[in-house]
Amino acid sequence: MVVGYIIVGIILGKSLLALFSDKTLSGLNFVTYIGLACIGFDIGGELAVDKVKRLGKSILSISLMETLMATVLIALGVYLYTKKLYIALVYGALAAATAPAATVEVLREYKASGPLTTTTFAVVGIDMLTR
What we know:
80% helix, flat
């Protein structure tokens, strides 16, 4: 389903049919916030306090390592390629961004459950807080 949404977006967007102008798309920012609120509500509904307490250390360490490693590795790679620190820092900061909607939708589509799914939901929730 996620791939289907992306394909429909490409077809209806500026790339092919151009049914939506830049002005229209920028005016739809509120839809993004509503979508993120729904995803956050969905994640909160999946997380139980006892599960989060049990998996808390792994959730925190995964979130920190995910953010730090993506930032450091991309920044380092871009710096080695361009030799420009300011560009490396910008790309490093952008590397930490994630797409919570796709992750949550894939977990829902496959009806995943268990400790890994709980941990993933919690990590995605923390990532949403840091956006």
